[in-house]
């Protein structure tokens, strides 16, 4: 996997992914940013949620669950010192569908957060406390 980050100006950067998609990242105004894009650490956190959500949807579909929507609400804490790494991340999955099995949803969320999601595995092995919860709507 490859990605290219190009400095645009100030603290604004454009990321181009190997698949050809672009993401604009910008720092906060107190660090010279213009608020034209997400902060780099927000992009990292968003990637965690996307990776985990991909797994939840895939696991539920393979379990023949009639899932119609999945939302992952992430809440993260960062260290007070530089580098301000993530110290805790909670992934709260909100799953909707027809006649969903609570047991299957719980299993999908657990497997994603602890086994299949590359991002949570990488960060968890690096010392970030990763927790998860779910609700069915």
Write the layout of secondary structure elements.
Elements: E1 3-9, E2 12-17, E3 22-26, H1 40-62, E4 66-78, E5 86-98, H2 102-116, H3 118-125, E6 129-136
Parallel strand pairs: 5-6
Antiparallel strand pairs: 1-2, 2-3, 4-5
Q: What would you say this structure looks like, in words?
A:
The chain is α+β, with helices and mostly antiparallel strands and 137 residues long. The protein folds into 2 domains: 38 residues; 97 residues, K homology (KH) domain (GMP Synthetase, Chain A, domain 3). It contains 3 helices and 6 strands, in the order E-E-E-H-E-E-H-H-E. The radius of gyration is 17 Å and the shape is elongated.
CATH homologous superfamily label of the largest domain: K homology (KH) domain
Ends: how far apart?
A: 36 Å
Biggest sheet overview: 3 strands, antiparallel
- Detail the poorly predicted runs: none
Q: In the CATH classification, which architecture of the largest domain applies?
A: 2-Layer Sandwich
CATH class of the largest domain: Alpha Beta
The CATH topology of the largest domain is GMP Synthetase, Chain A, domain 3
Question: What are the salient characteristics of this protein?
Answer:
three-stranded antiparallel beta sheet; 2 domains; GMP Synthetase, Chain A, domain 3; 38% strand; elongated; alpha+beta; 137 residues; three-stranded mixed beta sheet
């Amino acid at each position: 996997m490859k990605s290219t980050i190009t400095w645009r100006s100030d603290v604004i950067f454009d990321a181009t992914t190997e698949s050809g998609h672009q993401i604009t990242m910008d720092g906060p105004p107190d660090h010279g940013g213009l608020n034209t894009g997400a902060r780099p650490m927000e992009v990292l956190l968003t990637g965690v949620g996307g990776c985990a959500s991909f797994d939840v949807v895939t696991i539920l579909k393979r379990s023949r669950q009639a899932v119609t929507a999945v939302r992952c609400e992430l809440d993260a804490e960062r260290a007070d010192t530089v580098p301000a790494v993530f110290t805790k991340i909670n992934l709260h999955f909100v799953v909707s569908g027809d006649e969903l099995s609570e047991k299957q949803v719980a299993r999908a969320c657990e497997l994603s957060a602890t086994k299949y999601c590359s991002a949570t595995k990488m960060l968890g092995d690096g010392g970030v406390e990763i927790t998860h919860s779910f609700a069915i709507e």
